[in-house]
Amino acid sequence: MRRATVTAGPTALYDVPGPRTRRRHRLYGVVATAAIAALLGWLLYLLFDTGQFTAVKWSPFEYRGIQDLLLTGLANTLKAFAYAAVLSLVLGAVLASGRLSEHRPVRWIATALVEFFRAMPVLVMIFFIFVALKVQALPALVAGLTLYNGSVLAEVFRTGVNSVERGQREAAYALGMRKTQVMTYVLVPQAVRAMLPTIISQLVVALKDTSLGYLITYEEFLHAGKLIASNLDYDLPFIPVVMVISPIYIGMCMLLSWFAHWLAGRQRRNPRTDAAGPAPASPGTLLPGAQ
């Protein structure tokens, strides 16, 4: 009895690759993997050849004072990020409300502020607040990060609210709801899902930009690493410091991204936000005179 063979057909986006194409793709994968492995091997060779793994360069991390310096810098980084994140969200919400206002002067002022702070480099704002206004290092850093990230988040909030289907807004107004109620109970809850990944991405930017604090002598994580890397007693352990600090920064950013995915999944599983399915068919009330 002859067996039927099923051949893969083209999809809506691309043609399913045949045997020769799959072999070619496997070859590309092997070549790319070998190239990456060769690059990593070359980098390790350079690190060993320049003595970056010698005991004298890694010995600073054994001392309690160095460990306390790094932990204090990390705590200061997280403190600056926490202040900047909360204030940026608040400022973004205020500016977005201004841009969505029905009053033209309020809308113009909010638009001018958003465009100005988005165009200004973060470092320039931090230096201006620290030097010209003579503000302490932590408030200057937080203020600069808040002004920039808050203006960016304002555009995120405004775009997210405007992305909600227009019928939702019209239906809410038809029910007699005021604009504040429409924003609070209808538009913002639906826009949060669309805005959440972008909000977390911008908060990751704010976390990385806290490293600019070392330029105004704020004792954050990068500033602590710079003090250790420039120590002549340990033969200038610059590369070891980078190899210690970089994974921590990357880990914090990945933790924020994981939190965003977790929060989005939790919202999808929330029964209050799930779309109601169609009601099952049931016999309705008969019209007068119907059999």
Fold and architecture overview:
This protein is 70% helix and 0% strand. The protein is mostly helical. Mean pLDDT is 82; it is low at 4-9 and 273-291.
Which short descriptors sum up this protein?
single chain; 10 helices; flat; 291 residues; 70% helix
At a glance:
This protein is mainly α and 291 residues long. 70% of the residues lie in helices and 0% in strands.
List the helices and strands and how they pair.
Layout: H1 19-49, H2 55-58, H3 64-99, H4 104-119, H5 122-132, H6 137-162, H7 166-174, H8 179-209, H9 221-229, H10 238-269
Runs in which pLDDT lies below 50 for 5 or more consecutive residues are: 4-9, 273-291
The tally of beta strands, per DSSP, is 0
Number of helices: 10
Mean pLDDT across all amino acids: 82
Helix share bin: over 70%
Span between termini:
58 Å
The percent range for strand residues is under 5%
